[in-house]
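Morning run. Coffee first, then this:
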Amino acid sequence: MSFETPLPPYNASDPHATFLNLSCFDLLLIEMVPFAYRLAEQLTVERSGADTQVDEEEQREAAFRRLDGLGYRVGQGLVERFSRDRPRFTDTLDMIKFLCKDIWILVFRKQIDNLKTNHRGVYVLTDHSFRPFARMSMSSPSEALARVQPFLWFPCGIIRGALASMGIEATVQAETAELPGATFQIKTLTTKS
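And here it is:
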């Protein structure tokens, strides 16, 4: 429970609304990636036997699937809860704007800094001070860029889940050119009827 005043959009009439302290959320995000890797390694060893060498690429893929899946479910839940009092979205761009403004504020306490589109189903979301990267530091910038990629998988899942809950199937790719910024590229596949 947080003593901070929650920022909109929250449903003030929801008697079951609870709020999470930001430091707890930061710690959860920090620990999710190592946990996913440990779990992937443990499951691989259990399936293959104790003396089997764990393939690093296989472990990375398993961690990606786990983090993306967790984010997917979180994204679905956020949209289900916070869009129910709104009129139904009719345009894909309106759905992306809802994600950039309302959902991003709920999760990361700020809006996406920049949204670009080619109006053909590709959207690029840029966050110049991505909250999970704000406190990261490494000995060299190249090491930092290599090690932060797994921390983008959970937010990618949140974006995919939120869009899927609104009826848009999409692929999401994330990258970072310099810390603490992050860029998410969304490619919509098809819109469900």
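Residues 21 and 74 are 17 Å apart (CA to CA). Good start to the day.
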